[in-house]
């Protein structure tokens, strides 16, 4: 598992904001299986939108059981929250 990083994640989150918030359009986000990496990226997006990291993970798991599969993926969400709180959601 590679943590979401840098410009790629910022670009994705700008796209999600544009589609979900500005255009009220649904967006499908999926990796190969649609659980581990997908859940991690979506939990980080919820953190970006103001959710507590643990709450974000729980919400993604509620909607897609099995999401955010590993301790490393959980840690990635918490690390993203720390970076985002520090004012740098695109930092690596």
From TrEMBL:
* An MF annotation (GO) of this entry: protein tyrosine phosphatase activity
Name residues in a coiled coil.
none
Could you list this entry's UniProt keywords, alphabetically sorted.
Answer: Hydrolase
Kindly name one Pfam family recorded for this protein.
Answer: PTP-SAK
Source superkingdom: Eukaryota
Q: Where is this region: Disordered?
A: 65-92
Q: Which Gene3D superfamilies match?
A: Protein tyrosine phosphatase superfamily
Q: Which InterPro entries match?
A: Prot-tyrosine_phosphatase-like, PTP, PTP-SAK, PTP_cat, Tyr_Pase_cat, Tyr_Pase_dom
Task: Return the PROSITE patterns for the record.
Answer: TYR_PHOSPHATASE_2
* Domain Tyrosine specific protein phosphatases as annotated: residue spans: 7-75
What's the protein called, per UniProt? Dual specificity protein phosphatase 23
């Amino acid at each position: 598992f590679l943590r979401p990083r840098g410009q790629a994640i910022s670009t994705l989150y700008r796209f999600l904001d544009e589609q979900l918030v500005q255009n009220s359009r649904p967006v499908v986000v999926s990796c190969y299986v649609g659980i581990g990496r997908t859940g991690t990226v979506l939990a980080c997006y919820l953190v970006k939108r103001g959710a507590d990291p643990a709450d974000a993970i729980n919400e993604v798991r509620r909607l897609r059981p099995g999401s955010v599969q590993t301790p490393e993926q959980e840690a990635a969400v918490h690390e993203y929250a720390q970076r985002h709180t520090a004012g740098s959601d695109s930092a690596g």
